[in-house]
Amino acid sequence: MRALTAKTLLLPILSGVLLLSPPIAFGDSPEFPTERSDLSPKDRKRVAGVTRPTQDFSKAENFETMQGGAATTKALVNGDAFSHFSTNLTFAEEETFKLGNALFRKLWVSSPSSTQASDGLGPLFNARACQSCHLKDGRGHPPEGTADNTSMFLRLGRPARTEQEQEMLARHEALNFPDLTYGKQLQELAVPGLASEGRMTISYEEIPVTLGDGDVISLRKPTYSVRDLGYGPLEPDVTLSPRVAPPMIGMGMIEAIHEADILAKADPDDRDGDGISGKAALVRDHRTRQIKLGRFGYKAENASVRDQSASAFVGDIGISNPDAPFDHGDCTSAQADCLARPTGVQERLGETEAPDPVLELVTFYSENLAVPARRDPADATVLKGKQLFYQSGCTSCHTPKFVTRRDADNKAHAFQLIWPHSDFLLHDMGEGLADGQQVGVASGREWRTQPLWGIGLTETVNEHTFFLHDGRARNLTEAILWHGGEAQAARDAFASLGRDDRAALIAFLESL
Ligand code: HEC
Ligand code: HEC
C-alpha cells in the first residue's frame, strides 16, 4: 500500500463507477487533500514516524496502553467500561455529555401522550431509545431463543433500475433505493393499533472448518427472511442487510482522523498487488450535501456522528429532527395508516419531534465516550499474539494507529495518538459475509474494517461474545475464520497456526 496523488486516487474510484453506469459529468468531484493540511512538514515527519507499524515485539510500545489517546479512561474494568466520558473533557463539556446521556437513554412514547416532550415515537420503530440497541454503550446481539430482535435489524435496499438511478448513485445522491412499501429498514414494532412491518427470522446452518493442526471449529451460517409481513410483499430485488448495533466508544476520535491519512491507505485497484485493495466510501454530508469520506456504519455510509445519529432517530425510533424532518419516520406513501397517525411535534418546542438542541446533545455524547485503556499490553503472550497479528497480515486493514488532526473541532480530539486498529476503508470480504446490498460505493460484498479497540471487553460489558456485522460469530476465533475475499490470506495464516499461537493472537485481541 502506498500514498496516492490526487489523480491516481480519483481515477480508479471514478472509473469503477463509470464501468457500471453511463458517463456523467462530475461537476462536484470531491477534492480531498492528499497531504495533511494541519501539520508543518516537520510535524508530518514526526507523525509518520510515530504511526509506522512497530517491528519490535519484545515490549509494549510507548503510549500503547492509552489506546484512545488522552481521552482514554482508566476507570475500573466492569460492565460500565464503555460508558465513561473522555477524560480530557472540560467541566462544562462534562455537563453537556451528561445531558446527552439522558437523551441517549430516554424512552420515547407514542403520541398523543401526557409527557409531551417525549412524544413522537414511530409510528413504526425498532426501539424506543438509542440505549435499547447500543446496550450499555456497547454492542447489540442477534435474538436468542424467544428473546426479541431489538438490538439488531434488517436494512432494506435495492439496486438502480434505470439510467437515471445509476446516475444518482454515481453522483452519490443516493446510496441505494428503498422498498416502495417498507422503506429503508424493516421496523418490527409499531404504535398501538398500527400493523408492524414483520419479523426478522434467522436460521443457522453449522459448517465445520478444519484448522491446520486438525482442530475442528463449527461456524454458523445465517439465512435471513421476514415473516408476518404486515403490508404485502417486499419488492423482488430488495435485499436484506442484517446489522447488530456496534459499540459507541471513540467515535469523536474517528471523526478527527485526517482524510489524507485514510486515503493514503486506499488502493482500490490493488496497484501494489498485495491482494488487498481498500476503497474510500464517498458519501454526501446530510446538511451541506458536500461529498465527504464515509466513516460510520458497517458500510461507512455516514461521514459524521451527527449524520449517523440523525438517521438513527428517524429510522430506528421514528423521531424527526432538524436534519431528518420526517415526523412519520420511515413510513412510506404505501402505508396510509401510518401516515395518518398523529405526530409528536410540539409547536412551542420547535418544528420537529426532537428539535434543537436534542440532536446536538446526543451527537456530543456519542462523540465523547472514552475508549478503555489496554489492560496488559506488556504481557508476554499478548506480545506474542501481537506479533502474529502483524505477521498474519491483519494490519493490512486493521491499521494499528493514527495521530488525529491538530485542527479538530473539539480540542479533546486534537492531535492524539490513537489505536483503533482500522483503516476505515471498504474491503471485499468474500461471499461468506456478503449481504448482496450495495450501499453507495460499497458493493454487496464490501464492509468497512471494524475498529478493534475495546473488543476484549465485549463480554464484560454486554455478557456475550457475538461478533461481526450480524453477530453470527460466537467468539473471536469464529469472527476471524469468517474473513474471506481480500482477507482470505490473513484468515488462512491464522487457520494454519498451532493452538498456542492462535490462543496468543486471541489474547492480544482480548487485551484491546
Ligand atoms: C434499533 C437499534 C438501534 C437504535 C435504536 C440506535 N442504533 Fe445506532 N446503530 C445501530 C446499528 C445496527 C448501527 C450500524 C448501522 C449501519 O451499519 O448502518 C448503528 C450505528 C451507530 C453509530 C455509528 C457506529 C459506528 O461504529 O460506525 C452511531 C454513532 C450510532 N449508531 C448512534 C445512535 C444514536 C445517537 C441513536 C439514538 C438516536 C442510535 N444510534 C439508535 C442500531 C441502533
Ligand atoms: C481485508 C481486510 C481485513 C483483513 C486483512 C483482516 N480483517 Fe478483520 N475485519 C475486516 C472487516 C471489513 C471486518 C468487518 C466484517 C463484518 O462485520 O462482517 C473485520 C472484522 C474483524 C473482527 C470482528 C470485529 C467486530 O467488532 O465484530 C475481528 C475480531 C477481526 N476482524 C480480526 C482480524 C484478524 C485477527 C485478522 C488477521 C488474521 C484480520 N481481522 C484481518 C477486515 C479485515
Report on the structure:
Helix content is 26%, strand content 11%. By secondary structure, it is α+β, with helices and mostly antiparallel strands. It has a domain at 6-87 and 259-283 and 371-510. The strands form six sheets. A two-stranded antiparallel ribbon has the order 1-3. Strands 2-6 form a two-stranded antiparallel ribbon. Strands 4-5 form a two-stranded antiparallel sheet. Helix 8 crosses helix 10 (358-367). The longest helix is centred in the first third of the chain and has 15 residues, at 6-20. The radius of gyration is 22 Å and the shape is globular. Bound molecules: heme C (2 copies). The site of one heme C (HEC) has 26 residues, from helix 4, strand 6, helix 8 and helix 10.
Please outline what is shown here.
This protein has 512 residues and is α+β, with helices and mostly antiparallel strands. Helix content is 26%, strand content 11%. The protein contains 15 helices and twelve strands.
Q: Determine the number of helices (DSSP H or I, runs of at least 4 residues).
A: 15
User: What portion of residues is helical?
Assistant: 25-40%
Mean pLDDT across every amino acid position: 92
Task: Tell me the quaternary state.
Answer: single chain
What is the number of strand segments?
A: 12
How many strands, what sense, and barrel or not for the largest sheet? 2 strands, antiparallel
Question: Which value, in Å, is the CA radius of gyration?
Answer: 22 Å
Q: Low-confidence parts lasting 5 or more residues at pLDDT below 50?
A: 1-28
- Please list the strands of the largest sheet in the order they lie side by side: 1-3
Task: Give the termini distance in whole angstroms.
Answer: 25 Å
Rough outline: globular
- Attached small molecules: heme C
Classification by helices and strands: alpha+beta
The fraction of residues in strands falls at 5-15%
SSE sequence, one letter per element: HHHEHEHEEEEHHEEHHHHEEEEHHHH
Signal peptide: 1-27
Pfam families: DHOR (PF06537)
GO molecular function: cytochrome-c peroxidase activity; electron transfer activity; heme binding; metal ion binding
Organism: Pseudorhizobium pelagicum
